[in-house]
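re: that chain from earlier
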Amino acid sequence: MCGFIRNVRHRWWSNGPGEASYLFASYCFAGHLFASQLFASHLGNLMKSKTLSYLLILPLLAGVWGASNAWLPQSGGIAHAAEPAGGDDGAHLVARLKELRPDIPIEAVSASPLPGIYELKLAGGTVFYGTEDGKYLFAGDLYELGETDLVNLADIARSSDRRDLMATVALDEMVVFPADGKTKAVISVFTDVDCGYCRKLHQEVPALNELGIEVRYLAYPRAGVGSPSYAKIVSAWCADDPNGAITELKAGNDIPEKSCDNPVAAQFELGQEVGVTGTPAIVLEDGRLLPGYAPAADLAATLGL
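^ sequence. v structure.
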C-alpha cells in the first residue's frame, strides 16, 4: 500500500504544482470509485489498522477532477470519471442531485478552484463539492496549501455569509462588555451560562476589555429552548443589570428568575445558522468562527492586536 501511494503521489505531482496546490478534506465519498476491487482491498487494510479515520485520500481526487487521470493504474477495476460536459455552470450536477434528492436545499452554486469541480452551498452553511458530470459528490472542506499555512477556502465563503447574518442582530439585544478606552476590536460570543469553558472565558473579559476588545454576548443555551439553562439565561437577559446577572450565573450563583420579551430563542437559532456546534463560539468581525475557549492574549494575537 505504501509503495502504491508513493507511486501515485509521484505521478500526481509530476502533472504540475497547480493541481497539487489544493487539498480536499473529504469526510465521505459518493460514487462508483468505492466499487473498485483494488481500492477496496487497500481501504480494507487501512480500516483494519484504524489509520483512515482522518486520512485525506488525495490520489483519488485527480481521477474525479478529470484534469489529469493518466497516473491512475489502468487495471484492477478502478472506474474513471467521464469527461465533463464543460461550461454548464454546474447545472448538470444540480439537475442530477435534484433527481436523487428533490428536497436538497441548494442556495448557491459556484466554480471551485479545481477544474471540473463545483461548490454547492446548502441552507444552514453546509458545503458540498461535486463533479461537473454529476457523477461524484464530496462532503467536506477544500483547503489551499498556502505559503505558510493551510487555507480553508470553504470557510472563507462561509465567513462572508456569517458576517452578514451577525449584522442583523441589534446591539441592544446583546449583553455587551465594552472595551476600556478606545475600541480596537469586537468579538461576538455565543455563550451558555452552565458551560465550564464559557465561565473560563468570562474570567478573561476584564483582560480583553483592557486590551481594547469589546465582548458581545449572544445566548446559546446548549440544552435547547425550554431547558433549565434556557430559563437561567432568559433571566439574565431580562435582569435590570444583565452584565451583573450573567457574571453571577457564570460564577455558579443563582439570580432571581425573570421573564420578558427576549431574543434568546432567536439567538439560539442564529447560532445554529452560523455554524455553532458548541460553546463558547467566538465570531470575529470578518465572520470567522473560532470554536472554544482561548486566553485573552491569544485572542488579541488572532485579532492582530
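The first strand starts at residue 22 and ends at 30.
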